[in-house]
Amino acid sequence: FDLHRIPANLIADHLQYIAGQEKVTLDPAAAHAIAKGADGGLRDAESMLDQLVAFCGEKIREEDVLSVFGFTSEQTVADFTGKILNGATADALELLHAEAEHGKDMMKLMSDLIAYLRDLLVFKVKPEAVVEELNPELHHALEAQSALLETDRLLELIDQFAGAEGRMKWAPNKKLHFEVAVIKAIQTL
After folding, report:
1. Which of 16, 35, 55, 142 has its CA 20 to 30 A from that of 85?
2. CA separation (Å) from 9 to 27, 34, 173?
3. What is each CA distance from 106 to 97, 100, 173, 184, in whole angstroms?
4. Alpha-carbon distance 78 to 80, whole Å?
5. 163 contacts: CB under 8 Å, gap ≥ 6
């Protein structure tokens, strides 16, 4: 079998269809958060929706998805990236601490940050290539942020954060390595 990842927007649409059939109200942002978390796997997305119905009942909001699975909203990741790109060290660290305080998984946040930087890179090179993966609300953020730096700097950032992610895997204090990576990234820029 030649299996492929399914674009996030298609998964989100399918989840909306299932929710409609099951008389469940699924906010569009919630559907997109599930789709992003499922990382191209429709069965994973359906199973996550099933768990959310069990936990939350007939109405599912983005906050429910984020809290049940420990995800960080795409908008927060975009804001976090904006703070890094604009050199706002204190604000970036404050956002990181707030996410840690809310019990968010630091490894997941790091991989979300790297994925967002990758989307930013692809958007910069070929905007139409990321249309199927992105929440339409993030287009403005990508447009504004892609103008802030050149492609080579973006590649450097992705490399730095990927290296930090590797170190975080085995570290007992993941937040510490994340903080250092953010400060280094801002200094590099």
Report:
1. 35
2. 14, 10, 35
3. 10, 7, 10, 17
4. 5
5. 181
Residue 130 has pLDDT above 80, yes or no: no
Closest CA to 177 of 163, 158, 187: 163
Neighbours of 1 (CB within 10 A): 2
Number of H helices, E strands in the chain: 10, 2
Is residue 180 within 8 Å of residue 164, measured between CB atoms?
yes
Report the C-alpha gap between 189 and 187 in whole angstroms: 5
Beta strands in the chain (DSSP E): 25-26, 59-60
Q: Which of 104-108, 131-135, 152-156 has the lowest mean pLDDT?
A: 131-135
Amino acid identity of residue 78, one-letter, is: A
Contact predicate 156/186, CB 8 Å:
no
pLDDT of residue 117: 95
Q: Is the C-alpha dihedral spanning 137, 51, 57, 11 positive or negative?
A: positive
The single-letter DSSP state of residue 149 is S
